[in-house]
Specification:
Length: 387
């Protein structure tokens, strides 16, 4: 597992080399419009030194679906008396549209790497008070200071994962090793209506580009036109574009194959707490043409109403035992190096089997990056969705 995390860091550095770096986060005002920001010098050196008189009764967490163990939120409420209210979103772009409008009421959001960069450029994130994040030391230093936020001015690593194909081995006894299983319409006709693609303007064109032998980040108009044509041909055969409950639909057998995140696939295989039972026939693969590696991050919004409490919650999530419990529940990879030894053997074995970077798949993984040309993906996706 440790080896896998070091590989992740290497991947991030490669992405930095590939995209030439990014602007640092805008400094902005230290606490923006926050109403419960800590006064100067008033910090929590440990969880035990939190100034409880400054805590809000509620904290608004805008997160991806099935992306935090509810038991952890209950524990936070028991310890601090703060109810964490979770709303969910299905894509970075949906989240950005919501918070860009301002006064969303949310305190913490969970952008992926390239979306942290967008938030920094658009000055949407609150500069972190690291003196409140006493558990920061548990984070793997190799995963800090990445291209999208070089000083971790606004972002705290939350979870990492891969994007590839999840499938039911009973429906595909020969296995799946290529995006052809999703894009070759002659093959797909055999399981028409039982497959889904992510509802995601970067991941889904990215998968088509990979099938074409291109980079996920390719914006050459001819390549994008080809990718768009593939997606339009595939669309009538899909059950849906779905980023919300692929786990449940794979587990139930409604889908036999799906474009999926690694943790979604692990949830489909193992089940998810009291939510649903797993199906051990589900497995996950990074196709031979390649897939995505990504890191999601906690960002406190510039206009967070409860910024003090948000820092306390993030520090709580950084406790190794909490980070391990959360990673175990959601099936993604924790960036908390002191949580790694606390993970179960079952989850470590699945990481080694390809639900995390391994020697077998590492060379086929690529980071999504953003630059001035990647708005082309928004245009492509609008055409595909509207077709
Ligand atoms: N169910 C939670 C999934 C979180 C996925 N976020 C990563 C997106 C990478 N493009």
């Amino acid at each position: 597992m440790k080896k896998a995390i070091h590989w992740l860091a290497l991947g991030l550095l490669l992405a930095l080399a590939a995209c030439g770096g990014a602007p640092a986060a805008s400094p902005g005002n230290e606490y923006g419009g926050a109403t419960d920001a800590p006064a100067g010098g008033e910090t929590a050196a440990t969880d035990g030194e939190v100034d409880r008189s400054r805590l809000s009764g509620e904290l608004y967490f805008y997160n991806w679906s099935d992306y935090v163990d509810p038991a952890i939120l209950e524990q936070f409420q028991e310890e601090y008396g703060v109810e964490v209210i979770v709303d969910t979103y299905d894509s970075n772009e949906d989240m950005l549209a919501k918070v860009r409008a301002g006064n969303s009421g949310y305190d913490i959001v969970v952008p992926s790497d390239y979306a942290v960069q967008t938030m920094a450029i658009e000055d949407l994130g609150l500069p972190l008070d690291k003196s409140m994040l006493t558990n920061w030391t548990h984070l793997d230093p190799e995963l800090l200071g990445q291209y999208f936020d070089e000083e971790n001015a606004i972002s705290v690593p939350y979870l990492l994962g891969l994007t590839g194909i999840a499938y039911n081995t009973e429906a595909f006894p020969e296995g799946v090793d290529s995006w052809a299983a999703m894009f070759d319409t002659a093959q797909v006709a055999n399981y028409q209506g039982k497959l889904s693609m992510l509802e995601d303007e970067r991941e889904t064109p990215g998968a088509a580009l990979k099938y074409l032998g291109k980079s996920l980040n390719e914006t050459d108009p001819a390549a994008l036109e080809e990718a768009q044509a593939l997606l339009i041909a595939q669309k009538p055969l899909l059950a849906a574009y779905n980023s919300a409950d692929v786990n449940r639909k794979l587990a139930s057998g409604e889908y036999v194959i799906a474009h999926a995140w690694s943790g979604t696939a692990m949830q489909a295989r193992n089940g998810l707490g009291d939510e649903f039972s797993g199906n051990p026939a589900i497995t996950f693969v990074i196709p031979k043409e390649g897939g995505t590696i990504w890191m999601d991050n906690l960002v406190i919004l510039k206009d967070s109403p409860n910024a003090y409490t948000a820092h306390v919650f993030i520090n709580f999530l950084l406790r190794p035992e909490i980070a391990a419990q959360n990673a175990e529940y959601v099936g993604y990879i924790t960036p908390n190096q002191d949580a790694v030894p606390l993970l179960s053997q079952e989850v470590r074995d699945l990481y080694d089997a390809g639900y995390a970077p391994t020697d077998e798949n590492i060379d086929r993984l690529e980071w999504i990056v953003r630059d001035e040309s990647t708005s082309a993906f928004t245009d492509l996706w609008t055409v595909v969705k509207g077709d």
